[in-house]
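Re: the request from the purification team.
They wanted to know what the chain is likely to look like in 3D before they choose a buffer screen. I agreed to run a prediction and write the result into the notebook, where they can find it.
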Amino acid sequence: MLELLSFISYLLTLYVYILIASAVLSWLIAFNVINARNPVVMTIGEFLYRITEPLLRPIRNMLPNLGGIDISPVILILIIFFIQSVVLPNIARLLI
């Protein structure tokens, strides 16, 4: 069972990296550093959007309008870190 919790922690870490990649890609597209019409960039962007949007959308709906600043990835990363540092270790202690 501890291996399962370790695997869940690994997946959460991987999701944090995906969130960071999505944010960086959106900045690069917004500042015209990369061409959004490139098929490879479009494919990567669509993949990252489909992976991250289901968890970011509820957070965005709860946040007030901050004038174009999107802090929902930061909040989701903080939630993931809380799960990794508080929830998973407590579950592991209950199982031992």
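For the purification team: The mean pLDDT is 95.
Please add any questions underneath this entry.
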